[in-house]
């Protein structure tokens, strides 16, 4: 039996890893319908502990985990009914008592949720194409703003297609819009169950990488769900301090893996960025979100921290989003300007830093910038000098001037 299971698992792994090369020979939709769906459904009660017979044996757990892995690896091949079925089963398995099965279910749901973002990206490309066409035509529509492309907004999508001048294919965009509609409906329909299982699993994890994977799922779900996440903001926000406190304890332990902690903080920051970006004032006003976001931003932009180098880019993005959703600058964001001055002196992230400083000015917080005026002035002068040099180099003027000076000598 062990030999059979090993061969089966290895075969599944090979097929999943190289599925693009064997798709014509092994149609995954048929495989899912004939074997995987039944296997996942029949054993689910046992993995949830609903049978009263104790946890399944190791062989059953291995097979269940491999089936979930295949759903994530090959889920793009599933038909609509199968995708809906696989989504529901994968979400349910996050509540499995077996941690390996639960984490593999997290990965499956993560990859299925990314498909929702892919469909949204197609519609975003249509919107960008329409905007580009509108600018090219000199604002023929009277300078009207780009209509928002949302689920069910067929008129906006059709208008975008008409103006896109062949950038997007009609059939592709129509199919993406239809998929996005029913996939988001499925996501919204069991969002409460998904978050309940995720938060339950979070309390069982001790390894950093597993927590990172779980936070990545929450981040993708938050990005895909958008404002549909509003009823669940309280539950989401309540889970954030737990992650932040755990990461803080590990960071102060002295022998922590800096790379793993950086990935954990990065994933936590992505969750907060999407929460604030999608739910705006509601998220910013939440005390638990504030209690994590501001210390995390301070930690990530402090150049004395070993993780700062890899976290600064995402921290500046989160910082910018926090400024963009409120009509005024929060005192905690004013307090972060001390770190900003060090970033400006370093000079590696000044493009993003200047955008943040501009937001302070637009939000009438210029007085908060005055203590750092010399640093800001020096950074701007250096930026202008670098731009001027780049322009001259691109035109060959610096080389010509140097050659002329050499001839005069």
Q: Give the fraction of residues assigned to helices.
A: over 70%
Q: Figure out the total of helices.
A: 21
Question: Mind describing the biggest β-sheet?
Answer: none
How many strands appear in the DSSP assignment?
Answer: 0
Report the structural category. Answer: mainly alpha
Short synopsis of the structure:
The protein is mainly α. It has helices spanning 2-17, 19-22, 28-47, 58-74, 80-93, 99-136, 154-163, 170-189, 191-202, 208-225, 233-251, 258-279, 281-284, 287-300, 308-324, 331-335, 337-346, 350-362, 366-369, 373-395, 397-408.
Describe the structure.
The chain contains 21 helices and no strands. α1 packs parallel to α4, α5 runs parallel beside α8 and α12 packs parallel to α15. The N and C termini lie far apart (87 Å). It is mostly helical and 409 residues long. It is globular and about 80 Å long.
List the main descriptive attributes of the protein structure presented here.
409 residues; 0% strand
What is this structure's SSE topology?
Elements lengths: L1 H16 L1 H4 L5 H20 L10 H17 L5 H14 L5 H38 L17 H10 L6 H20 L1 H12 L5 H18 L7 H19 L6 H22 L1 H4 L2 H14 L7 H17 L6 H5 L1 H10 L3 H13 L3 H4 L3 H23 L1 H12 L1
Helix pairs in contact: 1-4, 3-4, 3-5, 4-6, 5-6, 5-8, 6-7, 6-8, 6-10, 10-12, 11-12, 11-14, 12-15, 14-15, 15-18
